[in-house]
Specification:
Length: 252
């Protein structure tokens, strides 16, 4: 199911990383339903192509571009590709991310630590910077960083992940100031959503007890916040962090 608000994104172009599945897929489809052309990126081209075909079936333009978000050169090529085809990016969603569970802080391996920081923070930093610079030179735009409520309430097992997302939160506030007034930069902080990531949770019943609303989010439930931040409905909102977590501790 894809949720939707009465939001008009006609004539806008969007780039969604990690748009092949999970929350990114829902946001990409919702933007297309609202009238936007949508570029979909993740590591596997065939997975992006499948989503792009669905978007084209809605009557929108779509691009499928493979890129590893931890690699700045691939991100630069991604931006060049979308700009080369469409001449503009109005909406960027820094969504791709990874959240491996680690046995303990002491047992965390350096390579995995570096990868988590690269995918969740280093890459989104580069992509936001490159896209924002072009937005400033053009008609402006909206950048949405997908963080996590884990950054607000870190728990053992995901501390490097929580730190990478806390860095993303700080990046949002800094870039909101750097690129205002033409570019708005905001964060969405999901709680626990039943995407592929959930398959790695060792104690789902225990996790449910920590959610006041008593259930995990369905992937389509991220869409309302994304459409709000992508559209002119949020024209005076920048540097914000919107929690979508069923009542889990929120940014304050
Ligand atoms: P998912 O695993 O279902 O999808 C992740 C997407 O990112 C996929 O398209 C995948 O191909 C892509 N991706 C992963 N690593 C990549 C890389 N190195 N380069 C390019 N693409 C890559 O995950 P999801 O649950 O949809 O999560 C989306 C975002 O939401 C992530 O940033 C995640 O940290 C965040 N988040 C999710 C939850 C949750 O409970 N699902 C909670 C908090 C935050």
């Amino acid at each position: 199911m894809t949720a939707s608000l009465r939001v008009d994104l006609s004539g806008r172009t969007a780039l969604v990383t990690g748009g092949s599945r999970g929350l990114g897929l829902q946001m990409a489809l919702a933007f297309a339903h609202a009238g936007a052309d949508v570029a979909v990126s993740s590591r596997k081209l065939y997975a992006c192509e499948a989503v792009a075909a669905d978007i084209r079936a809605l009557g929108r333009r779509s691009l499928a571009v493979a890129a590893h978000v931890g690699d700045w050169a691939q991100l630069d090529a991604l931006v060049e590709r979308v700009h080369g085809e469409w001449g503009r990016i109005d909406i960027l969603v820094n969504n791709a991310g990874m959240s491996p569970v680690q046995p303990s802080s002491a047992a965390t391996e350096e390579a995995l630590f570096d990868k988590v920081l690269a995918v969740n923070f280093k890459g989104p930093f580069r992509l936001a910077a490159q896209v924002a610079q072009r937005m400033v030179q053009g008609d402006g735009g909206s950048i949405i960083n997908i963080s996590s409520l884990g950054a607000i309430s870190p728990v053992p097992g995901i501390i490097p992940y929580a730190c990478s997302k806390a860095a993303l939160n700080a990046m949002t506030i800094g870039m909101a100031k750097e690129f205002a007034p033409k570019v708005r930069v905001n964060t969405i902080s999901p709680g626990m959503f039943a995407t592929d990531i959930a398959q790695h949770w060792s104690d789902p019943q225990g996790l449910l007890q920590g959610i006041p609303m008593g259930r995990f989010g369905s992937p389509h439930e991220i869409v309302g916040a994304a459409l709000y931040l992508a559209s002119d409905a949020s024209s005076y909102t920048t540097g914000a962090n919107i929690a979508v977590g069923g009542g889990i501790d929120s940014p304050r």
